[in-house]
Amino acid sequence: MKILVFGAGVLGSYYAGKLYKANLDVTILARGEKYKHIKEKGVILENYFTHEKSILPVKVIENPDSVDFDLVLVFVQCIHVKKILPILSKTKKTESFVFFGNNLAGFENVCQVLGKERVIAGFGAIGGKRKGHTVIFADADRKNPDKKGPIIMGELNGKLTDRIQAIKEILLGAGIEVKISKDINGWLKTHAAVILSLAGAAYKVNLELKKLAENKQLLYLMIRSIKQSIKVLFYAGITIEPFKYRILALLPNFILHRIFKKLFVSEFAAIGLAGHARAARAEMKALSDDFLTLAKNSEVQTDALKEILSYI
Fold first, then answer.
1. Please, what's the b/e burial string for 26-48 (b: 16 or more CB within 10 A of its CB; e: otherwise)?
2. Do 54 and 175 fall into the same domain?
3. CB of 151 within 8 A of CB of 122?
4. Of the chain's two ends, which shows fewer C-beta atoms within 10 Å, N or C?
């Protein structure tokens, strides 16, 4: 099977590297300086906790015009998806496109261009940042390095198909944990709802998360914003997925304060939340606008949500 990883950011580089290490036929698509560097030096990965570095000579292309791929894994921010659809449409023989990343708008435009039967949605599971051309990643907690965060994937219709099972087996064979969601639309919207509140609070303190951990007033505002966001989804008829976020909405605020205070002083938050938020502010702003549009059509009180999102 020929696999194309579309996008050479943190996630694309990491997963292309994992597939390459598993001796799979993988190619990464990169542009500009990233393309030149990967062509000359390979994909460079460094573990955030252990500082172990890998230099991987993954095949790289700038355009997929002359190459056919069976599977395309797309790792681009949601604000760039529309722009790349004409490029993806040229890969006529591709059976499956898996779009990884935040998404509140849905996949109607993607399906119109590529065909609904070829589109799968998902979300990558690692945190990371770039340092020059080196991708520094965190794919597990330092205290439990063997327990890797899973990729989330799901068919748009929620069915457990043979093809998504086959893709899961390919990824598992490369050492990539996978969970299949029966409602990937609900999963992505729930994740966006929660991460937007965290990001807004983090931007308010210029991504200095230890300051956020000590700012009791801001943390409680963030917690109220998360609960209002989950209510917005609930009243919009969107499944709250995974189940733990339903519990999150019911926990007392003082307990959530302890949980988030501990989270924001962790090493994983420094690389996972702050690292992504720093590189994706434009995406966060677009997601924020989409979510506020959704909230406007509900009867849920959204004072905390509006204030937190104003910091993005």
1. bbbbbeeebbebbeeebbbbbeb
2. yes
3. yes
4. N
And the tokens for 138? Answer: 């965190």
Least confident of 72-81, 139-148, 173-182: 139-148
Total number of domains constituting the chain: 2
The pTM score is 0.94
State whether residue 122 is helix, strand or coil: strand
Residue 243's pLDDT is what?
Answer: 87
* Of 277 and 186, the one with more pLDDT: 186
Burial of 257 (0-12, 13-18, 19+ CB in 10 A): middle
Tell me the residue range of the domain where 131 lies.
2-182
Whether 217 and 252 share a structural domain: yes
> What does the pLDDT look like over 189-214, one tens digit per residue?
999 999 999 999 999 999 999 999 99
Pair (11, 140) in one structural domain: yes
Evaluate if residue 118 carries a pLDDT over 80. yes
Last residue of a domain, one of 125, 159, 182: 182
